[in-house]
Amino acid sequence: MFTAGAESLLHQARDIRDEELKKFCSRVVNLLQKDELGPDAVDALQRLFLIVSATKYKRKLEDTCVHLLQATLCSPKCPEQLQLLCASILREMSPRDNLSLSCDHIQSTRQLSLVASVLLAQGDPKGEVRSVGQRVFRILESRQPEGPSPRHLLPVVSKITHLAPHTLHEDQTNQLSKRLVDWLRYASVQQGVAHTSGGFFSTPRARQPGPVTEVDGAVATDFFTVLSTGQHFTEDQWLNVQAFSMLRAWLLHSDPEGPSTPDADDRSELEGSTLSVLSAGSTAGHLLPPRERLREKAFEYCQRLVEQSTRRALRKGDSDLQKACLVEAVLVLDVICRQDPSFLYRTLSCLKALHARLCGDPARVRTLLPIAQFFLNHGETAAVDSEAILRHLLTRTPSEFFHSPMLAFELTCFCRDNLPLFGRNLDILKRSFPNLFKLLAWNSPPLTAEFVALLPSLVDADTAVEVLHALLDLPCLTAALDLQLRLSPATSERPLWDPSLKIPSCLEASRDPQFQGLLQYLLRATASGTTERSGPLHRLLQPLASCARVVQCAQAVPTLLEAFFSAVTQFADGALTKQLALLLLERSDSLFQVPQYEAPVHRVLSSRFLALCALHPSLVVELAKELLEFVGSVSGIQGRGAMLASVVWAIGEYLSVSWDRRCTVEQINRFFEALEAVLFEVTQSRPSAALPRCPPQVVTVLMTTLTKLASRSQDLIPRVSLFLSKMRTPAQSPAPSSTSCEEDAGAVRTRAAELLTLLKMPSVAQFVLTPSTEVSEPRYHRDANTALPLALRTVSRLVEKETGLLPG
Amino acid sequence: MVHAFLIHNLRAPQAQDTGLCRVLYSCVFGAENSPDDPRPHGAERDRLLRKEQILAVARQVESMCQLQQQASGRTSVDLQLQSSDEPVPLHEAPHGAFRLAAGDPFQEPRTVVWLGVLSLGFALVLDAHENLLLAESTLRLLARLLLDHLRLLTPSTNLLLRADRIEGILARFLPHGQLLFLNDQFVQGLEKELSASWPR
């Protein structure tokens, strides 16, 4: 518990000054030098640990103190509690330059393990990892029956193979592989004896322990595994557990290159040919080299685990362990088959049966993932079609289990990590995007980053439009899933939805068949190729819009939209770009009304609309009718200021003959009239509570665009000039209420003046406002005859000279 | 393999402005190999980096837990102690997993599995492709052991000065970051060993 007392303790530990620390260190030294190390020493070391670990900056401990800690750690008669504390303090201070710890003379394996934990935390500047490894292997090779138990050493070995696999020699690896075989396959099947200390009432002859049992209580039918239970365990049974726990990492280490070993040619022949004949049985096991023998025994172990997992465990903990063992067994089988494809035939039949059994078990749905992974890895080699398995995984699982955070995470990572392996099956993944979006909609915080990476592969020319609609409706999907959960019978004790939010109107309205159709569409499992208007659904689900989960999902959408557009612009052609641009215009005013959702989405949509137009400039002319409608329909400008600004800017930029030959003067005039009407409306209407002041950016963009259009169709110049001169004088608006209003008005007036000046020289205006495509060439700016700055300087000098002669 | 185990405080979702996210205990198993950086690495700098990496993980876990609590409509009341007699229902405790991209904050991509119990967050930092079912059950086991053996439910105790017990539990149930396949009976056996090794 983190109470105020704990907070103050932490503060004290962090704020302790150097002199106090020095005194405390000498106290620790005194306590540790005594013969009897009592609770005072323990208490002091606990405090020392807190002092060292509470701050991320270095703590200067006296050298004598550190040396004494090291000595205490290595001393054979020190109690375990103190050893643990010394090790933890030394480890907390790591990495440390002047550590003089060595594991060479330590006899107890438990102590050696503790010292190793300190040494391995140094980051290996002096080859500590190698020296620890050598010492550990020397002990392992000694094989004394009463000697130190290897139980504490196996995790150290596992860590070393992870940190520095090159420090182990081949013969050491082989030696350990042989011992692993013994521990895995030949552990005792009798239960261990209880370690009873003597005592007055203890019987001199302990009852003979019986055989180990399976998790369902039956007597064990075959060799000992991690799923075998008993009252007490023997040492080799402990080693069995350790050996299996490190098995996968060890197999990967002992054969890192996989099949590309000297006899790879033989193996590659095996891959293509009939596997059944060549790999029928495991014969003459003892004649195999250690690596191959380990694989064989590991294979038998995994098969036994698969068989043991069919039993009904009596305890919940064991039932959870069965699932973890299934996953591990399949992962180990995957490694074995990668290293030696001759195991494939036996494994495939086993896994197919396993998959069939697991499909109907909802409690074990997470174990389907490694099986699917196996078939993706080996499907090609074994000429087995992984399509059915993938289809089941992607079309059924997400709809039923989207609410489980761990499954959603694992399934998303599975899709993302295996993208290169999908091959022909990538189509199934693409078509299942609605199902995958359910995982994202329900669990958006941890999965957003994964989906940003996954999106480019889900989007292609066929699905792009549907995906964009789905992304914009993602918060609506969250609400729909919530509704679906409330309507379906409860599957767990605690409700999966937010019980503090009550929505009787939604539940009532959802019985309407029209809404049911729309809901079913939103909750579809695969891409349908069509789109439905989701507007009515937004109204139905409105009560859920303020639900925390929906809001979290809404916050993720802008990022996903950016990822979508980055992907789409890689391959979109003219037709698709046109469809997407239209979609942006349509959807900008029909979004699910989640608090603070609209503004960020509008920002993305407006900037992406401009980007689409930049890619295909003729878009403006092609969509002229729709754009006119859009501009004309803007009445409540406050919600769509960003979209309007970018649409108007696009019109100004690209509605010209230089971008598309089909642009006509009539079109320019029509746009001009529409925009003029909008500008009139926004500037003449008085700001009130219902209609807040129009952002000055929108006003200036409108003015600039009108000027641009006028420069192309010069009959319009007088109208624009008149309008602009009206804008220059302060409008009949009420007194500005803040300096920002004054600044805004000032900016508008300045822009109006600039544009007016520009229009006085129509050909210059055309040159400035409708530059030819050569503007992007550097030569255009360096050539003294065509450079724009030069032209502008000339013009302004001319204008200044004539200012006195012109009115206004 | 587990790269690190940490315990930190979990603040209620509404109380984000008060106090800081504090790492109460952390243990890094082994060390990340230093990148090929031509500049000489100070040991101090490496340690600073390690501590900051752990703090970054703790902050992310806290925010994930708060978001999950908000989304499921559970208020901070659930995070407080109901009664010290009730066993804490760990299977219903908020939990989840997320990925850390390479370089942010660890050199290699890692996966974090987390569990929120009362006002403490427990997290395991794993390699990218690990057996998450095993990691999850190991994390629950560690949380249960720590709650039971450190008697964290009684209001007056805290885990700041109990490093020896935490280390003892980790040394048996997560030695050097090795996830172990322990069935119930093995767990009981190890717990007995654990209790026997403590003097009181």
Characterization of this structure:
- The complex is a heterodimer of chains A (808) and B (200).
- By secondary structure, chain A is mainly α.
- Chain A has a domain at 429-489 and 502-616.
- In chain A, 64% of the residues lie in helices and 0% in strands.
- Chain A has 41 helices and no strands.
- In chain A, α5 packs parallel to α6 (109-120), α6 packs antiparallel against α7 (128-142) and α35 packs antiparallel against α36.
- The longest helix of chain A has 24 residues, at 316-339.
- Chain A starts with a helix and ends in a 5-residue tail after the last helix.
- Chain B has 200 residues and is an alpha+beta fold.
- Chain B has one domain: Beta-Lactamase.
- Helix content of chain B is 36%, strand content 18%.
- Chain B has helices at 43-71, 132-149, 163-173, 184-197; strands at 2-9, 23-28, 95-100, 110-117, 120-127.
- In chain B, strands 2-1-5-4-3 form a five-stranded antiparallel sheet, sandwiched between helices.
- In chain B, a hairpin with a 2-residue loop joins β4 and β5.
- In chain B, α2 packs antiparallel against α3 (163-173).
- Chain B is globular.
- Classes of the chains: A mainly alpha (808), B alpha+beta (200).
- At the A-B interface, α1, α3, α5, α6 and α8 of A face β2, α1, β3, α2 and α3 of B.
